[in-house]
Task: inverse folding
């Protein structure tokens, strides 16, 4: 979230282009997409099954 703060946004506000697009919107979209990717990766369940606690009391 720090990357969306004003002092950090001013770093991306340059007269540069990336494939003909201004740098600021490309950087914002890239940071946003990376944040979504990291959160999706972190929220994935592991492939290994967890140990099941079987309560034998009935």
Result:
């Amino acid at each position: 979230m720090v990357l969306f703060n004003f002092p950090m946004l001013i770093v991306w506000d340059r007269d540069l282009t990336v494939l003909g697009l201004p740098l600021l919107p490309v950087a914002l979209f890239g940071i946003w997409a990376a944040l979504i990717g990291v959160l999706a990766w972190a929220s994935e369940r592991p492939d290994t099954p967890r140990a099941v606690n079987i309560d034998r009391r009935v």
User: Anything to note?
Assistant: Helices lie at 6-12, 23-43.
